Task: structure prediction
Amino acid sequence: MRFANNWLASAVAVIALATPAFAAEKDIVDTAVGAGSFNTLVAAVKAAGLVDTLKGKGPLTVFAPTDEAFAKLPEGTVETLLKPENKQKLIDILKYHVVAGDVRAADVVKLTSAPTVNGQRATVKVADGGVKVDNANVVKTDIACSNGTIHVIDSVLLPAGDTIPAVADKAGAFKTLLAAAKAAGLVDALSGPGPITVFAPTDDAFAKLPKGTVETLLKPENKQKLADILKYHVVPGRVYSDDAVKAKEAKTLQGGSIKITASDKGAFINEAKLLQTDINASNGVIHVIDSVILPPAAAKKAAAVPAPAPAVAAAPVYYQTVPAATHTQPVYTHQPARSSCQSRQGGGVRMVRRGW
Result:
């Protein structure tokens, strides 16, 4: 009798474990349709032309906002996004909810970020017994599909929508950099589709240059020299800080290469210290540095300039607190470290040492 009871219990356990397999016969789209609580999401996927993608082989992981999540958006937002003229914007938003691979809840809690198929990273934070992706709470996990997994969230995720110059302008700490980009005729290039990575010197960084250097570089006759210096701060592709440190070196748009090092003193791009990392923009990512980096030829020439006569007092350098850039995405690793959610508020450019 005891044997029979044990056999029955084992059989029930096997059946229970096998039950999710029936749900997994449906792909992500069909599972969402069948759930009945993702009608707006399904409508958006159809309007964006992403049905075939989400019904494909995968595997994919979708952080799926409920109908109530979409209802939390400002009135008229959904209707506007569903218009044909806003198709690309809708695609960008929906792709920000999708991660390549089958990422189950047990794996999600180990992350500090999730690289989305949009190109940008969404932050992941485990706190108070729950999980947040950016500002959305994960309310249900591990809905198995034939081509991946669905995790349900209570808010719509919104990727960074501003280009690199717009993000820098809103930060308020890069006035000199933006003036230089305008003088060099590079604003359109920095606003293009990219993606690109910019190591952005703050206003204080430019103030550390010898007196009169910035004013001289901004003159029309020095446009090419200025463009070369600025291009030396730009790397093709969306390179996040953890990937940059692993690479140790990167070729810039100027043609020269920069060295990336990390130690107990911080992380450096050549001799410039990284103050803030992984600031998302729609067309790339920004890392903030405390000094202007110069191409080898320009650096050699600058080193050859004679020092000013002792009688001439050195121009004082004033250090001021500057507002931190928004949409900050700190260093992401796959280790269960301190959360690195996007910093959307906070004052003062500061060194972020998570994962360095």
Observations:
- Residues 33 and 39 are 7 Å apart (CA to CA).
- The longest strand covers residues 136-145.
- The radius of gyration is 25 Å.
- Residues 2-18 form the longest helix (17 residues).
